[in-house]
């Protein structure tokens, strides 16, 4: 009788790991403590709940490493990408989804699979036997976190992850704002008008920065330090780095033309992206924040077009823990001191929904093949998944290890024949061409048993 794979955590990584293992014929139990034990950020007990953004970022598989990761997961029959494609929303060149139907669909697919069961018990210790994947994400329970710290002999590193606010669309003043994707990107009119844009003059921007810097912020408890991940910085932290930082980041005005005043170039632009299929909710892009709730409403209503905005959800901040994976995990994502336990997702130091799901996909396959008594090597570092996992399990410098998004800087240099390409577009195309060929080769070489 085939041994069971136990997965702790039903987020992006845990859900994808369960799907991959079950399709290879392995019985799976997902241990998800929600809704019995809640977290600061989650609202439901659904699997693969999207907590922060509703975007899987770029879907360009020829010029973007994230889009390439999408491609690899689709090629491997990934549940997260398949479900995202079914619930996608217009977002220019990005893959954004209607978050609640998305997580509900993932939950239904997993619960309906004959080899997968889900329990809401909280796991508080690292098991000493059996096959396990820990994919508890950034909000690992305190008890399990303490057990991991005790096992690894080191304190878990920590940073603080901030959540962006969501606005009711009907309260946005469209006589001020307009619909347009940056550079009119997208194949359809719906895609080309996927974002709502709120323009700022120089005076608007300066007043907004002043208010942002002066606003009441969330205080940290004694002993906590605010080591933010640069890809998810609160806007106040960005503003503290320089008054022009936001204008060259999430508020950059390039590629946008105000339809109400086409002759005037906005000094800065705040973008909102559709958050549900009905188009009734929009999230403020890049506006993760640690401001207190009262201050948020006051400051965000200074944005032209949002004077009378009603918020479906205000922003927030929570602690995010991750392992020093280069010292603790082997190339199979196993804990060196306890190899019956694998780790996957954000707790390993990969950052983002996409990266977490890809990490789970790999962990699920590695664990399944081990249970089946067959060897499976990690994918080559020339692939997006392989490059990311190689970085996490040894490619990164342990002393300065920080959460990492997938990017072409993690890939080995192109071979001589392709290394001579001139220009970034050709170089990136070289990376993605090579990755696709090598990923397909990795999948084919597995000679996997019939998928179920």
> Helix fraction?
25-40%
Tell me the strand percentage band: 15-25%
Count of strand segments: 17
Ends: how far apart?
17 Å
Q: Which stretches are low in confidence, meaning pLDDT under 50 for 5 or more residues running?
A: none
Instruction: Name the CATH homologous superfamily of the largest domain.
Output: FAD/NAD(P)-binding domain
Shape: globular
Radius of gyration: 22 Å
Assembly type of the chains comes to: single chain
Q: How many structural domains?
A: 2
Give average pLDDT, whole number. Answer: 90
Total count of helical runs of at least 4 residues? 14
CATH topology of the largest domain: FAD/NAD(P)-binding domain
Mind explaining what this structure looks like?
The chain has 452 residues and is of the alpha+beta class. Helix content is 33%, strand content 16%. It has helices at residues 12-23, 65-75, 79-86, 99-112, 142-152, 189-192, 202-214, 235-240, 293-300, 325-328, 353-371, 384-395, 416-419, 424-445; strands at residues 5-8, 28-31, 55-58, 88-89, 94-97, 116-119, 131-134, 157-163, 166-168, 178-179, 195-200, 268-274, 281-284, 311-313, 316-322, 334-335, 338-343. The strands form 4 sheets. The protein has a 6-stranded mixed sheet. A 6-stranded antiparallel sheet has the order 10-11-12-13-9-14. It has a 3-stranded antiparallel sheet with strand order 3-5-4. A hairpin with a 4-residue loop joins strand 4 and strand 5 (94-97). Helix 1 (12-23) runs parallel beside helix 11 (353-371), helix 2 packs parallel to helix 11 and helix 2 runs parallel beside helix 14 (424-445). The mean pLDDT is 90.
């Amino acid at each position: 009788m085939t041994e069971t794979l136990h997965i702790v955590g039903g987020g992006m990584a845990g859900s994808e790991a369960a799907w991959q293992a079950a399709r290879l014929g392995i019985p799976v139990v997902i241990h998800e403590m929600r809704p019995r034990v809640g977290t600061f950020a989650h609202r439901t007990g659904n699997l693969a709940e999207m907590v922060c953004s509703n975007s899987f970022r770029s879907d360009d598989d020829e010029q973007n490493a994230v889009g390439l990761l999408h491609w690899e997961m689709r090629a491997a029959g990934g549940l997260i990408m398949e479900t995202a494609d079914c619930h996608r929303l217009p977002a220019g060149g990005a893959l954004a989804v209607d978050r609640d139907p998305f997580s509900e669909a993932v939950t239904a697919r997993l619960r309906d699979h004959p080899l997968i069961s889900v329990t809401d018990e909280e796991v508080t210790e690292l098991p000493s036997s059996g096959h396990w994947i820990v994919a508890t994400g950034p909000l690992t329970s305190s008890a399990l976190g303490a057990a991991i710290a005790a096992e690894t002999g080191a304190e878990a590193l920590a940073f603080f992850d901030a959540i962006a606010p969501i606005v009711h669309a009907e309260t946005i003043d469209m006589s001020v704002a307009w619909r347009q994707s940056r550079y009119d990107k997208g194949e359809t009119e719906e895609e080309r008008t996927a974002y709502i844009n709120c323009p700022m003059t120089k005076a608007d921007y300066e007043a907004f920065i002043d208010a942002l810097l002066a606003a009441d912020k969330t205080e940290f408890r004694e002993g906590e330090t605010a080591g933010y991940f640069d890809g998810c910085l609160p806007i106040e932290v960005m503003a503290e780095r320089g008054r022009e930082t936001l204008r060259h980041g999430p508020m950059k005005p390039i590629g946008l033309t105000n339809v109400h005043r086409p002759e005037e170039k906005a000094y800065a632009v705040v973008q909102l992206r559709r958050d549900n299929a009905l188009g009734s909710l929009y999230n403020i892009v890049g506006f993760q924040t640690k401001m207190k709730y009262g201050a948020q409403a006051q400051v965000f209503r200074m944005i032209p077009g949002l004077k009378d905005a009603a918020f479906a959800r205000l922003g927030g901040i929570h602690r995010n823990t991750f392992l020093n994976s280069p010292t603790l995990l082997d190339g199979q994502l196993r804990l060196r001191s306890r190899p019956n336990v694998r780790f996957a997702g954000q707790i390993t130091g990969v950052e983002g929904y996409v990266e977490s799901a890809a990490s789970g996909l790999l962990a699920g396959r590695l664990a399944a093949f081990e249970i089946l008594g067959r060897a499976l090597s990690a994918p080559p570092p020339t692939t997006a998944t392989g490059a990311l996992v190689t970085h996490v399990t040894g490619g990164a410098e342990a002393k300065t290890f920080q959460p990492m998004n997938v990017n072409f800087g993690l890939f080995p240099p192109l071979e001589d024949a392709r290394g001579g390409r001139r220009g970034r577009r050709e170089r990136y195309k070289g990376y993605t061409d090579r990755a696709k060929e090598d990923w397909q080769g990795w999948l084919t070489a597995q000679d996997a048993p019939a998928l179920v």
